[in-house]
Design a protein that fits this description.
single chain; 381 residues; mainly alpha; Rossmann fold; 5-stranded mixed sheet; 14 helices; globular; binds 2-acetamido-2-deoxy-beta-D-glucopyranose; Zinc finger protein; lipid metabolism; lipid degradation
Length: 381
Amino acid sequence: MASGMKIWFVLLTTLLMINFRPFLVMVKGEPQVPCLFILGDSLFDNGNNNNLITTAKANYPPYGIDFPDGPTGRFTNGKNSADFLAELLGFDKFIEPFATVKGVDILRGVNYASGAAGIRDESGIHLGDRISLNRQLRNHKVTISHMSTLLGNKTLTMDYLSKCIYIVGMGNNDYINNYLMPQFYPSSHLYKPEKFATILMQQYSKQLKTLYRYGARKVAVFGVGSLGCIPAELAIYGTKDTICVDSINSAVQKFADKFKPMIDDFNNNLPNANFIYINLTSIAIGDPAEIGLTNLAEPCCEISSFIAKGQCRNGGGACSDRASHYFWDGFHPTEIPNKVTAIRAYTALLPTDAYPYDISHLAASTLALNKLGQSAGAELM
Ligand SMILES: *[C@@H]1O[C@H](CO)[C@@H](O)[C@H](O)[C@H]1NC(C)=O
Ligand SMILES: *[C@@H]1O[C@H](CO)[C@@H](O)[C@H](O)[C@H]1NC(C)=O
């Protein structure tokens, strides 16, 4: 097993070095798809929470210490995985946040992601305001109506929207900032893990169908990671020698198990649907030391001891060996794991990384566009 992992990571290192061209050295050209829309939580947020009244924000140092523009609201030291995916898809600029995007820029796509947001509206409320998935979908509807104005008519807009890639990453906060916080949220008193996972997936499935009704045909749904292994959860539920909190991982696994059947259901029953599942459990397989990640336990930045425990302290310090830390703060990875996630989501390294295929194939897939305008457009406005 160990030698197998080594081979994968040698492969991965090769991918990191050769196959991956950041903006600076990229040959200018058309992106592989005309537009990229991003819905999600803090793992994808690039500034939507900056002007919300919430402690779930990251537009202060040391966040962004390795990002060209400094602190932007990204919950990491550098780029997040949505940024890397935009690069891999050939965009020459990052996808702008809904909070600030203007004019024709919406034609390249919009990032709606919001830290602390969940599938359930109440998730994250103890931290303040956040843009739940339902709100993100309403924001997307606003974008589409502007897009219709720019493009001239609804048929053209629906045709255009069907060619975009949508990446959606939700569910982490329905656990971290809901189910695992019995002092603030009743969900764990009301539901056993299996039941909670079931109702959560039912709601998520409805929301993803709404995205489909809004014209999305190429959708990559990111799963949830091993939340029982993040420093913030270990700080609450771990004991001195625990590496992961098994009860948390097993509760979250019940939710993870429901992604594949949902994806199959969409692809079998929604005309022209191309949904894929990005398996973060699979992407986590391998020996991180092979790519220099030797510190897997301690966050790199100085953690705030006040509200939003687990985020970096405003103006606090950061470790200098950021390339060897897996975790940036108590919740979020540093830039390097973000890059690995994006690369393996784009080009699967293991067959289980993406189901039924990876984002590079999603980008290349062609759709039968004939019925599209009518079937989707009818539901739009
Ligand atoms: C929409 O615009 C396209 C391109 O300009 C045109 O061919 C088509 O007839 C228009 N459809 C409607 C319903 O106006
Ligand atoms: C996700 O990856 C894990 C680890 O390899 C695997 O056990 C699981 O079956 C995968 N899930 C899917 C839907 O492929």
